[in-house]
Design goal:
This protein is α/β, with parallel strands linked by helices and about 250 residues long. The chain is built from eight helices and seven strands, in the order αβαβαβαβαβαβααβ. Belongs to the short-chain dehydrogenases/reductases (SDR) family.
Amino acid sequence: MNISTALQGSTALVTGATSGIGKAIAHSLARQGVEVVAHGRDRGRGEALVKEIAAEGGTARFIAADLTDAEDTLRLASRASDVDILVSNAGLYEFAPTSATNAASFDRQVAVNTRAPFLLVGALAPGMVQRGRGSIVLIGSSAARVPAPIGAAYGASKAGVEVLTRYWATEFGPSGVRVNSVSPGPVRTEGTSAMLGEHIAALDKTNARGRAGEPSEIADIVSFLVGPASSYVNGSILFADGGELSTLPS
């Protein structure tokens, strides 16, 4: 089956879909005939995304939610209860030394990066199990494996994504629901550009590929993981880091 048509008729919730990697994922899935439920915080950007997808011949709707709020996260799940694909992409990074990271910052990052996918999967996976099919892809980060002088809270929150991937693959796999994750290395997005400013050029020197990734490259991997071509892939953590891990001392 051609992957360009294999996903037609599916419905996918993509969190953090209004920018960066999430936006690329939303467009990629819509081009393959997937009805996209796009999540974000900014309604204006969400409505613009829906129009962009419609202009390409796709179908999408937007739901605004604040993933730092547990109740709002569960409301999002209730409004997308019929999806058979979940791409938990939304992420929050507040890079700072540990001594400069207060409890509120730590809690925000864990809430978005670890708790939100936990709540969404807890709410949406039972429906997938009942229907006997489903695919869940969590977007992690190479920061879970590659330490840096700053960003310990972010790295810890993304390490939780790896643990959840393995547990959920075991919990839901026998019922026909696969769970995998993609851990990108440095990727050029609006967020990384704003965060790194003039230092963004340093992204090109952190991996064996010699460059930072593009959002579309992560989106292509997600398309593979949610489609039938990866039907025997479950519980995998796929590092899309240009070889960043390979450059670390063994």
